[in-house]
Amino acid sequence: MAMSLGGATREKAEMNVTPMIDVLLVLIIIFMVITPIPPRGLDTLVPQPSKPDDAPAAPSHDIVISVGPHQSISLNSESIDLAILQTRLATLFRNRSSKVVFVRGEKTLEFHEIAEVIDLAKGAGVDRVGLMTR
User: Fold this and answer.
1) Interatomic CA distance for residues 10 and 17, integer angstroms
2) What span, in angstroms and rounded, lies between the C-alpha atoms of 121 and 64?
3) Are 109 and 66 in contact (CB under 8 A)?
4) Second label for 71, Cα 20 to 30 Å away, from 32, 98, 111, 113?
């Protein structure tokens, strides 16, 4: 873009676009750096409904931890203290090949109370934790 100045020297004033390009490149880099990364949650498996023509399954030896209000914990309907839950689970899973436990919580509980039980189960060597609904 040129502009003619009056006079015999025939000098032309040109707009210097280099600083503007530098500023635009810096802004592009800044926006590329601060773009939000989508949060990644935990991988889950959605339970599938059973087929009506399936034969009833053999009784299993699943371990179910029920969490009630005021930190009342029961392990397969046996009342247990939260302090000894991890050692009890470690002894149960010492010789088992399937290290799966199910956690059932009351509807009125906060999730951090359930997460504490899940953390204790993971510390006891449990590979998979399933959450049960009512």
Assistant:
1) 22
2) 11
3) no
4) 98
SS3 130: strand
Taking each helix axis as running N to C, give the angle between helix 111-123 and helix 85-92, from 0 to 180 degrees, rounded to the nearest 10. 50
Q: What is the pTM of this model?
A: 0.54
Of 127, 122, 109, the closest CA to residue 73 belongs to: 109
Amino acid type, 125: G
Q: Confidence class of residue 26 from pLDDT cuts 50, 70 and 90?
A: very high
DSSP line for 56-112: PPPP---EEEEE-GGG-EEETTEEE-GGGHHHHHHHHSSS-S--EEEEEE-TTS-HH
**Structure token pair of residue 133:** 């609904």
Q: Which residue has the tokens 């609904």?
A: 133
Tens-digit pLDDT profile for residues 8-22: 667 778 888 888 999
